[in-house]
Design a protein that fits this description.
Layout lengths: L1 H20 L2 H11 L4 H4 L1 H24 L1 H17 L1 H7 L2 H27 L7 H27 L6 H6 L3 H12 L3 H19 L8 H4 L16 H22 L1 H7 L4 H4 L2 H19 L6 H21 L2 H15 L2 H10 L6 H10 L3 H15 L9 H13 L12 H7 L1
């Protein structure tokens, strides 16, 4: 009963992750108009949000060490509430730097929350079913992600289908007034969000959520050479690189699809729901992974299949046009669904006393969501929105390598194949 209640509460936290994270898909085109940005500048939204993971990942480990996992979750929620409140002065002044700072603070709070909650759910049962439990959390996460752009889009983009054309015909005073009114639309939603985040933080504090000791639940691999540093675990370091690339391609699939739809000629009224298509595909992938793992397919095989599907759908997006191409980007959500839950148990396997710091490093991989979409925005300005998706190909190739061989590497020295297979 206690474990069920704990899983339910962590599920609520994952719902919060998804709701806040996938608002960026709407914020990118919204702030591009409201703050008069080019494509590269607009993708600083994703950069500011996800780069916070590099800054806050290691401090998050220190927070957990001092406060415990439960109180660290509370701290993360409080930080996120503070970041949401920064949207009030940012919107009032129509200040893009202040919007970015608010997103950075929200991303920092979410980093603390992620660092505490992902290892928590990973060790609440057998390692073999860890991806299944995280997939269940993913359903909460992506269901929220489906709802959030629809809700925020209905509020901030309502009646603005031809806004850019109307703005072009206005004089400077009219244009400024119209843009100020547009920017002010986010004030109420983000005030409500701040109140919910703060209230949830208080609830977590007094919820009775049990503490865990991941070091006790994740002992070092039997017979392995004693390690003195977290950097001596290739499965972790390669997993960090793979997770970095995965988060980048996942964010690209969700946050760029609206702008890509616009480039393919779809009106804003249609394109604004495309992020929800990506997330709906992810939810389907999560449901399948819960049914199939680990009884019918291992975490490793699921990650392999996902990487191959990512390459297939990327090829479709590059070769096709119109809705078929957009649909291929949305289907990347299905390909990406199992990647987050599969990476964690593979990368944390055998870390023992280094589990907490290892989890902090993995959370730093979320920075992929900061850098790869920014690179995509640059390539859009240099080439076009479709050809910029070539960036996905090397990312999925490395993820495929990690799924097939990289996660089995438990030492930087050459390991006999039969021993690596035995340890995996």
């Amino acid at each position: 009963m206690k474990q069920t209640r704990a899983i339910a509460l962590i599920g609520v936290l994952f719902f919060i992750f998804g709701f806040v994270t996938w608002l960026n898909g709407i914020l990118i085109p919204y702030l591009r108009i409201a703050c008069e940005l080019d494509n590269f500048q607009s993708y600083l939204v994703a950069f500011a949000f996800y780069i916070a993971t590099i800054v806050m990942a290691l401090p998050s480990s220190g927070i957990i060490r001092r406060t415990g996992f439960r109180n660290a979750m509370m701290v993360g929620l409080f930080i996120m509430a503070g970041g949401a409140l920064l949207f009030v002065p940012a919107a009032s002044m129509r200040s893009y730097p202040l919007f970015l700072f608010g997103l950075f603070v929200i991303g920092g709070g979410m980093t603390v929350l992620q660092t505490a909650s992902n290892p928590y759910i990973s060790v609440m049962g057998p390692r073999e079913s860890a991806a299944r439990r995280i997939s269940l959390m993913g359903i909460f996460n992506k269901t929220a992600g489906i709802l959030s752009p629809l809700i925020l889009g209905a509020i901030v983009l309502k009646g603005n289908e031809d806004l850019e054309a109307r703005l072009a015909a206005m004089d400077a005073v009219q244009r400024a007034a119209e843009l100020d009114a547009l920017a002010a639309r986010v004030i109420v939603p983000y005030c409500v969000m701040a109140a919910i985040l703060f209230g949830l933080g208080v609830f977590v504090r007094f919820s009775g959520l049990p503490e865990i000791n991941p070091e006790a639940d994740n002992q070092a691999v039997a017979g392995s050479t004693p390690k003195t540093s977290v950097w001596q675990f290739p499965n972790l370091i390669l997993g960090l690189v793979s997770l970095f690339l995965y988060v980048g391609v996942e964010v690209m699939a969700g946050d760029t699809i609206i702008s890509y739809g616009l480039s393919q000629g779809f009106p804003l009224t249609e394109a604004k729901v495309f992020t929800s298509y990506t997330l709906a595909a992810m939810v389907i992938g999560y449901i399948l992974s819960i049914v199939l793992m680990p009884k019918w397919i291992s975490q490793e095989k699921a990650l392999t299949v996902s990487a191959v599907l990512g390459l297939v759908f990327t090829a479709g997006a590059l070769m096709l046009d119109g809705f078929a191409s957009v649909l291929c980007i949305a289907l990347l959500g299905f390909a990406n669904a199992v990647m987050w839950p599969a990476h964690w148990p593979l990368a944390l396997h055998g870390l023992g006393k280094f589990t907490r710091i290892g989890a902090s490093l993995l959370v730093m991989g979320i920075a992929g969501g900061a850098l790869l979409p920014l690179a995509y925005g640059y390539l859009v300005d240099v080439f076009n929105a479709q050809q910029a998706y070539w960036l996905l190909v090397p990312c999925y190739l490395f993820i495929l390598y990690y799924a097939v061989a990289g996660h089995k590497k438990l030492s930087w020295r050459a390991t006999p194949p039969e021993k690596a297979l035995q340890n995996s």
